[in-house]
UniProtKB/TrEMBL annotation:
This is Uncharacterized conserved protein YndB, AHSA1/START domain. CDD domains: SRPBCC. InterPro entries: Polyketide_cyclase/dehydratase, START-like_dom_sf.
Length: 151
């Protein structure tokens, strides 16, 4: 069974404007995410914009598309993975001298049957894959933190 919510956060010693510039540039997603190899928006960043993505796990590659569902500059960015219906989001909030960034994967309504089948047949099962996703989310946030805090 798919976890309804995977979530992690990091505190970044940088203003929300700098962090937002990094996460809202989908072309840079491969710089953050260990699974994403390529991501392109098919239009300006706004609700309804679609993206085309290429993901990788070891030697396996697969394409996905997403639809941006929410854009609140310097506060929240969320997109739905069209294949499985999950919503991925980044939320930014003030934290001390900087910004807390929370990355979430929402699957409160489960995932599509084809996604379940694929994860079980090709990715080692839901529990294993979700462990990898959480590890990847932590790596993504660490990479965003490093970029935001650099000079």
């Amino acid at each position: 069974m798919v976890a309804p919510l995977l979530q992690t956060h990091v505190d970044i010693d940088a203003p929300a404007s700098k962090v937002w510039a990094l996460i809202s540039d989908f072309r840079r997603m491969p710089d953050w995410s260990p699974q994403c190899r390529w991501m392109r928006a098919l239009g300006p960043l706004r609700a309804g914009t679609r993206t085309f993505n290429l993901n990788r796990r070891n030697r396996m590659f697969w394409p996905t598309t997403c639809t941006v569902v929410e854009v609140i500059p310097e506060k929240r960015l969320a997109f739905r993975v069209n294949t499985n219906g999950t919503i991925w989001s980044y939320e930014l909030e003030p934290s001390g001298r900087g910004t807390r960034v929370t990355e979430s994967r929402h699957a409160e309504n489960g995932v599509s049957a084809i996604s379940n089948l694929s994860v079980n047949a090709l990715l080692g099962g839901t529990e294993n894959f979700e462990r990898e996703l959480l590890k990847g989310m932590n790596a993504s946030l660490a990479n965003i933190k490093a970029a935001a805090e650099r000079g």
